[in-house]
């Protein structure tokens, strides 16, 4: 189902080349999550999810602490969470999640990125219905059978397990994120290669070489935008 580990790994590898940009985006996301609830991950589930994902991207503790302290300090900087949907070459589908303190700027920037790189904006719901909100975890050094047994013993459901390159990817319902996390932490497993809520396409598509080149330029342009936090798509990349 959905995108397999090699594609998740490709996404992480591409982002890791731009660590300063990634850290800045995480700083903003952590600040927003901490400000919307208690600045304590044990009582703020949204913050806990962000921090778990930050860990898989090796975000420095100093950046995490600074964002949480900023939220504790009562800073009045406000951000809106907005989602944009659109299409790339050959009808490929893209979802763009943003955090912004200037809605007009963000809308204009996202639209320009689509228009200048062979894409076009869609209306709300024009793309997202073809994606599933999913909790995704990656665990190294265990077999799919071992992981399935642990989940079954704890009565935790998983949509699917995929084993590849000595990594098992667990797909679960989004409301099972903490249940899956806690099951493995009780087994002494606290490090995940991936741990996040994501939007997985129901079907992947393959583009021609030329279309894929154009598509990658579009994705790069979107991810380079300051207000963009996440970009999801349904293209099977080489």
From TrEMBL:
Pfam family, any one: Transcrip_reg
GO biological process: regulation of DNA-templated transcription
Ranges for domain TACO1/YebC-like N-terminal: 3-74
Record keywords: Cytoplasm, DNA-binding, Transcription, Transcription regulation
GO terms of molecular function: DNA binding
Domain TACO1/YebC-like second and third: 79-235
Gene Ontology CC annotation, any one: cytosol
Protein's cellular compartments: Cytoplasm
Family: Belongs to the TACO1 family. YeeN subfamily.
HAMAP family in alphabetical order: Transcrip_reg_TACO1, Transcrip_reg_TACO1_YeeN
Protein name (record): Probable transcriptional regulatory protein SAMN04487944_10329
Native species: Gracilibacillus ureilyticus
